[in-house]
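Blinded run. Sample ID left blank on purpose so nobody reads anything into the name before looking at the predicted structure. Input follows.
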Amino acid sequence: MSATMRLLGHPLAGAVLGVAVLAGLVWRLGTGPVVHGIASIGAWPLAAAVLIGVPVTVCCALRWSLVSRGLGIALSVPAAVAGCYRAQFLNTALPGGVLGDVSRAVRHGRAAGSPGRAAGAVALERLAGQVVQLVLAAAVLLLVPSPVRAGFRSVAVVLLVVALAVGLLALAVPRARFLTRERPRLDAVRLALLDRSRWPGILLTSVGALVGCLLTFLVAARAVGVTAPTVRLLPLALIVLVAMAVPANVAGWGPREGAAAWAFGTAGLGADLGLATAVAYGVLVFVAALPGAAVLAGTRRRRATPALATEGARHG
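Blinded prediction complete.
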């Protein structure tokens, strides 16, 4: 058992599982949906994805800045936007889907002189976004009629109950400062996420980022030829976005495509069309993150310039 657990905990295990999901889908549905998803992307979906990506990135950056200030470390909004774009590009280009977030935590920690708090800020910022997404997904699956509602009704109830319990527990923790070592970690979470000066902004930015992701998914669905009403696609899109949080992926690919194929098939739209939509969505997300490549290149160029200047002065 211990050997199995060590194998599952290996950094490459998630990538292997993601590849296995993709291989299973291609074996079951063929390469046609994948080719269709890529070939369906034209100029207007690409432009829409890039434009939608701007407010999504800004929302994530604002949320990160709010959480960082809650933990007592400064992070300007422009720096947060650049860091989020860089992280998005790395997340979509490298296996695992989280290496970009690790990078921004390390960079912020070095700049602020507090690696632990910087890592906590990134972790809590991601947690806040996932909790809001899970709660909204549960609410939609409970309230909006859809072919997948019956199978997810019990899961949605459990998610809402757990979210309510965690919120009440966090609010019940006495007010205390995070800056002293003896303070409980739960109080740090409350101060960073649930303080009255921060939680409205964190909630609004999380909802804004989620709405942007949903719009991008709808753009992908329309691009591949899905004609179902938006209200019918909304629960399916939320299921796919929740599946994207599973760390078993290759640069975001894997569970997303599996969830889309299952959800579309259950809804009577066809598993092949679901896979094509997920593939198109993955390409659009990658294109929307491409500004992060420019940010990354600019960062490396700024690092190289002082080194070249020092080398030139040494030989001058």
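Unblinding after everyone has recorded impressions. The chain has 14 helices and no strands.
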